[in-house]
Specification:
The chain is an all-alpha fold. The protein has one domain. Helix content is 87%, strand content 0%. The chain is globular, with a radius of gyration of 19 Å. 45% of the residues are buried.
Length: 269
């Protein structure tokens, strides 16, 4: 009975939050693409700095080890970015046939006027999915722990996880929409990452006492992916010359993402 409750709670929190975020994100994405990009950057940074990292450092884990994990995560996603850029460049240098096939793609990148824009969202998508999966696994363990302690506490925890995941899933979906090219593909990918919550719940049910010590490291690993994507992929796309009105709007939407995550996380706690 407890295991079934954990499965229901983790699926509702992990996948339900993605679908709720999709209803909000894709309704606004087509009309406010640049604004949603700003909001995504704010949401990802706020999730890392205002929620995941504080929770990790409030544990008994050593600060030195957690900072080492954060640094290692940032380096890992930098290398992942490099590997994706190398692979992408290798694909486009096989000859004139491939160059012609990707002509429109290259022209699109030229219009952006910045080399990094060619590949940021492409590699950023992988980093977001990796971070989401690690974060979701940790959420599953938390939910399992709550259900094992008390059934009502498990239900409350599942609802809290669902609520605080919605704002940053909006950011994830915006990034994956740019990476995948379609809203459906983005929704499928983030939903699959959300199902890892159920895996974390099942593993947590059997190994909760052993895994509790590693939760802070799961949180820091997820944080490193969100920070990297926000600072290396999203923010550079926003750093272009705009009029005063557009610049103010960009900053407002960035702050909106931060405020939304901070507010929902506070209410969830």
């Amino acid at each position: 009975m407890t295991l079934l409750a954990i499965l229901v709670g983790t699926v509702a929190a992990g996948v339900g939050s993605v679908w709720l975020a999709a209803l909000m994100a894709f309704a606004m994405l087509a009309r406010y693409t640049q604004h949603m990009l700003s909001m995504a950057a704010g949401a990802l940074m706020a999730t890392a700095f205002m929620h995941l990292l504080p929770e990790a450092f409030e544990s008994e884990a050593g600060a030195h080890e957690l900072f080492a994990m954060l640094l290692g995560g940032l380096v890992f996603f930098f290398l992942l970015d490099k590997a994706e850029l190398w692979h992408h460049g290798h694909e486009h240098n096989h000859g004139p046939a491939q160059a012609e096939a990707h002509g429109d793609h290259a022209h699109h990148h030229h219009d952006h006027g910045h080399a990094h824009h060619n590949h940021g969202p492409r590699s950023g998508g992988w980093a977001v999915l990796a971070g989401d999966s690690v974060h979701a696994f940790g959420d599953g363990i938390l939910i399992a722990s709550a259900f094992l302690a008390d059934m009502r506490l498990g239900v409350i925890t599942s609802l809290a996880v669902l609520a605080h995941e919605v704002p940053h899933h909006i950011g994830d979906l915006v990034v994956l929409r740019l990476t995948s090219g379609t809203s459906r593909a983005a929704l499928v990918k983030v939903s699959m990452a959300g199902t890892v919550t159920a895996l974390g719940g099942v593993v947590g049910y059997f190994l909760v006492t052993q895994l509790q010590a590693y939760l802070p490291f799961f949180l820091v690993a997820a944080s490193s992916s969100f920070v990297y994507v926000a600072l290396a992929d999203l923010i550079p796309q926003l750093q272009k010359q705009l009029g005063f009105r557009d610049t103010v709007a960009q900053v407002v939407w960035l702050l909106a993402g931060i405020v939304l995550v901070t507010l929902v996380s506070s209410l969830a706690h």
